[in-house]
Amino acid sequence: MNEIKIIILGKPFSVNQQYIRKKGAAKYILSNGARSYGDLVGWQVKTQYRGRLLTEDLEVAYYYYFHNKQRRDHLNFQKILNDRFNQIVWQDDSQILTSHHYTCFDKANPRIEVFIKPYERKAS
Questions:
Q1: What are phi and psi of 95, to 5 degrees?
Q2: pTM to 2 decimal places
Q3: Phi and psi at residue 115, in whole multiples of 5°?
Q4: Nearest residue to 33 via CA among 14, 7, 9
Q5: Helix %, strand %, coil % for the chain, to 5?
Q6: Does any domain span residue 77?
Q7: Among positive and negative, which fits the CA dihedral 6, 107, 32, 94?
Q8: Angstrom distance (rounded) from CA 49 to CA 85
């Protein structure tokens, strides 16, 4: 398998924005914004990846391009992505054994670039 590259256009969406507390209940539900963003991610992934469902262990690199240099916890941005890649690119995000996260800036073109390749075990 060659390295797979998928680009998610638009401002990255944080896990902190995903859930809202339902009024009068003790449970949290997926916010409308998170649902819409998840649908957008799923659509973009499906239009870019038409290969077989990956079943092997994986290494994934995430490049988050933000529109400004505000400090962010970039790990908060991977959850919704990984969930939307499930059953489209890979079977389950538990296949990701190594992940790399990079924070970048592009005021004119915020996006997330995801690079996927088979996990290569290092000889010890």
A1: -75, -15
A2: 0.84
A3: -115, 125
A4: 14
A5: 30, 35, 40
A6: yes
A7: positive
A8: 10
Bridge partners of 118, per DSSP, are 58
Instruction: Work out how many domains the chain is built from and give that number.
Output: 1
Residue 11's pLDDT is 86
Which domain does 94 fall in, by range?
4-118
Q: How far apart are CA 80 and CA 116, in angstroms?
A: 16
**Token pair 């592009």 is at which residue?**
106
Alpha helix (H) residue ranges in 11-53: 32-48
Domain-embedded: residue 124: no
pLDDT digits over 34-62, tens only? 788 889 999 999 999 999 999 999 999 99
CATH of the domain at 83: 3.30.1330.70
